[in-house]
Here is the input.
Amino acid sequence: MPSLPDLPARAAAAIRIRPRAAVVIAMAAFLGLVAFFWPFVVAPGKFGSNYAPPLIFGVLLALVLCVVISEIAEGGINSKALAMLGVLSAVNAALRPLGAGTAGIETVFFVLVLAGRVFGPGFGFTLGCTSLFASALITGGVGPWMPYQMFGCAFVGMLAGLLPRATGRREVLMLAVYGSLSGYLFGFLLNLSFWPFSVDPNSSIAYLPGLPFTEQWHRYLAFDLATSLGWDTGRAVTNFVCVTLAGPAVLTTFRRAARRARFQAPVRFRAGGAAAVALRGPAPGGRVEEAAQPRRGGRDDGHRHGEPRDG
Here is the structure.
């Protein structure tokens, strides 16, 4: 495994999550689980059509995602964080078509995991939504399944930002294992959204309304193992290999960008004699940068260094 320099495990979060946003995210997580497990909550045909429940819960998920993103944005997202979000969303949207559809290979998750780790849970949640939305527009993958995919990727990125502290190879190994497990969990949850419509009702692994929860659950486990285990394994292996090989370099690059951007560095002003001085927060070397501000009237500080004045 490539060596990773011992850099700080966490930089300043690119997007802050305030207490109210945290409560909204917790409520969204609960509603998301209800939406994913809708076959155990509402039987097909309950609302007049077999396809009504997943569509209703898909719209609900889309609304919940909009509310959560608005709450996160209200907590503080500046132009630098927005620019980073746009760049990484475009990168993920471009990477996804390279592997999707081939033995479960998904190249979108490892960037999501590493970005959530470095830039924080709020950034990871937002990146999961925007990158999946952008890739769906590029590949023509817009459909009732898209809110479920966006919601799943959003929580993959957010949970990566909440992992415990670690440095060096231990951090890379932790992220690789997390990426692998998230690949399995993502497939396990996504299968729930279409399970009732994908198998012959006479099959022993088909969804049958009215069965007890335990028997229904056993049927779903058998369905997931029989139809999705190989695909999910491809996703999990891809995540593990990509994070292990590219993780050290990508983490270093992301952290260098985070230090230079200083997303949450406070800007304070104090009087400094003839000119005002702006304190821009700690620089990468630990010092405080000072930027002299021009005097009122438009005069610059060049006159204090022996330059002749007009008139």
In short: Residues 160 and 178 are 8 Å apart (CA to CA). DSSP finds nine helices and three strands in the chain. The mean pLDDT is 75. The longest helix spans residues 229-261.
